[in-house]
Every structure is written in structure tokens, then in C-alpha cells.
Design brief:
The chain is α+β, with helices and mostly antiparallel strands and 159 residues long. It is built from 5 helices and 8 strands; from the N terminus they run E-H-H-H-E-E-E-H-E-H-E-E-E.
């Protein structure tokens, strides 16, 4: 689906994986790493480089959607357990253009069509909590920390 501003959102294929993971890592380092200690940074890097995660993606059990601007990845979002946003990152030069919102909208439509789920969830990083609240997510627990990763569990109803 191509939008008026030339941004296309589509499901990622095998050739998109490395670039999507690199975009997530680069954006994490730029905007989120400062909120974490070394344990959290190491945990996130391990998650991104996990061979099992890549195998799940290749089998279709870990859907990833990408936003393209002129053929170059501008953002990515991934989904696990049918309704949980696992990763959402938008490249720095594309912030404040509605790409994150459109990626989430694409995943919402996918969840409703493929799984008939009535809600979606996310463990929002401190940097992203405000964004998720703006688009209708609500906190379901206070901020937590696991393996050095700081997050707020949130959910959004899909009707």
C-alpha cells in the first residue's frame, strides 16, 4: 500500500530481515540505549541477533512489516504471539511523519484479519510510552525491568 507521501508499507520478506534488524539496532542506540544500563543494551542486542527469532520469521511465525521510502527501509514493526508488538522502530530521518502510526495500523489490520484478536499488546520502552498513549494504548501495569530492559506493559482494544 503506497501513501500520498510515497511511503509503502508491506510485509517483510527474507531479503528484508538484515536491514530491518540493523534499523532497529541503530535506532535503539540513538534514542533508547541512554535509558538502559549495559545489561539492558546487551539483552537487546542478544534478542536481535537470536537465531531462533530469525527462524521464527522465516517460518512465518514472527511477522515483520516494513515501511519503505523510495525503496529504502524507513521503519519496521514485528509481531509475536499473534497480538504483541515485539519491535517498532522508525529511522531517525523519518520521525514525525506518521510512519510509526501507519505501521501499527497495518499490524492492527493484520491481527484482526489473520487472528481475530480483540486487543494488541506492547511492552513500551520509556522513550515510546507517550507515543503509544497518543494512539490509544493504555498502561496495564507499572514500569518494569527484566534483564536490564525497562518497559511499561500496555494494551489497546481493537474493535
Amino acid at each position: 500500500m503506497v501513501q500520498e507521501d510515497g511511503i509503502q508499507i508491506r510485509r517483510a520478506n527474507i531479503y528484508d530481515w538484515d536491514e530491518a534488524i540493523a534499523l532497529a539496532w541503530k535506532t535503539f542506540l540513538k534514542f533508547e540505549a541512554k535509558d538502559y544500563g549495559q545489561e539492558g543494551i546487551d539483552s537487546f542486542r542478544e534478542f536481535l541477533s537470536d537465531a531462533l527469532l530469525r527462524r521464527m520469521f522465516l517460518k512465518g511465525d514472527y511477522p515483520v512489516f516494513i515501511a519503505l521510502d523510495g525503496g529504502k527501509q524507513a521503519g519496521m514493526i514485528s509481531l509475536r504471539n499473534k497480538k504483541h508488538i515485539s519491535l517498532l522502530f522508525v529511522e531517525e530521518g523519518h520521525h514525525h511523519r506518521g510512519i510509526g502510526r501507519r505501521l501499527i495500523q497495518s499490524v492492527e489490520e493484520y491481527i484482526q484479519k489473520e487472528y481475530q484478536e480483540r486487543k494488541m499488546t506492547v511492552n513500551a520502552a520509556p522513550y515510546a510510552v507517550g507515543f503509544y498513549r497518543q494512539i490509544g494504548f493504555e498502561d496495564v501495569a507499572p514500569e518494569l525491568t527484566k534483564d536490564g530492559i525497562i518497559y511499561t506493559p500496555m494494551e489497546k482494544s481493537l474493535y
